Amino acid sequence: MAIFRNRFASIRDIVLVFASCVVPVYSWSILAFLEQMPGWLFYLNAWDVIGIFAYTQAFALLESAMVLFALVLLGAILPARFLRDRFVAQGSMLILLTSGWAIAAQYITIIPFTKYAPWHSKRFLLGAVLYLASIGVSYVLIRRYRRLEESINSFIERLTVLLYVYVPITFLSIITVILRNI
């Protein structure tokens, strides 16, 4: 069992990275819900709107758990110096940068009549290269500057406070989803 214990990050680090995963995913799903909600109010009752919100939050939990699982598994498979030694800082930066790029890609895709709207292969390739470059630069900066790593860790520790908001929302959402399906 000691072999497995040494391969995985500590529970504390996993919770911190989970917080860095939950905050952008939940925040983005809540913003998307609030953006669409005024249109639903014309033809849905309150219970249906609550149900939609519950499903989005339950899916946000599933999405966050899958991302966390993939990151923990990646940390266990790769040598310790790549991810596990600085799991909180590097994992959180990977999640936050990926979330930021995904949000940018979604906005570029859904905004009609802009010069950036269609994803041609050249634009997709440029976006992929810029994304990978941002991941690589953040990896090098975290490895090189201990103070940056400490700042990221401190910021992520502060994000855990939002778990006290998002976890009860998730719990109530799961109860709502169960009640709607009984």
* Largest sheet features: none
Topology as a string of helices (H) and strands (E): HHHHHHH
- Compute the number of helices: 7
- The best one-word shape is globular
Uncertain stretches: none
Helix content estimate: over 70%
Over the alpha carbons, how many angstroms does the gyration radius reach? Answer: 19 Å
Report the count of strand segments. Answer: 0
Given helix and strand content, the structural type is mainly alpha
How widely separated are the two ends? 41 Å
Percentage of residues in strands: under 5%
Question: What are its keywords?
Answer:
81% helix; single chain
Describe the structure.
It is a single chain. The chain has 182 residues and is mainly α. It has one domain (2-180). Helices cover 81% and strands 0% of the residues. It is built from seven helices and no strands. α2 packs parallel to α4. The radius of gyration is 19 Å and the shape is globular. The mean pLDDT is 85.
Helices and strands, with pairings:
Blueprint: H1 2-7, H2 11-40, H3 46-77, H4 87-110, H5 121-144, H6 146-159, H7 163-180
Task: Describe, in short, the structure shown.
This protein is about 80% helix and about 0% strand. By secondary structure, the chain is mainly alpha-helical.
